[in-house]
Amino acid sequence: MPKVSIRRVHKTTLDDAKQKARGLVDKFQESYSKYLDRVDWAPDGASATAKGKGFTASFAVDGQAVSVVVDLNFLLTALAGKVETNVNKNLDATFGPA
What pTM was computed for the model? Predict the structure, then answer.
């Protein structure tokens, strides 16, 4: 499967980064609810996995960075560039520009 993988250094505390990541994933859920089957959060709130029609996405934060990895199935390969652009746009809005 094609993969979009983005890692971005953040300049905030881990707790603040977790809160921002929660907001980012909540926005993702709202925007793509018709394509999304489920979102599962780790107990510590530092990572989540979203599964939907033709994709799996993982979101994670630690004390230094936030990362998003999206695996697309073959039928969605053509959308990889658009997915990457949208992820970067949302990371910029949430954590500041790279």
Answer: 0.91
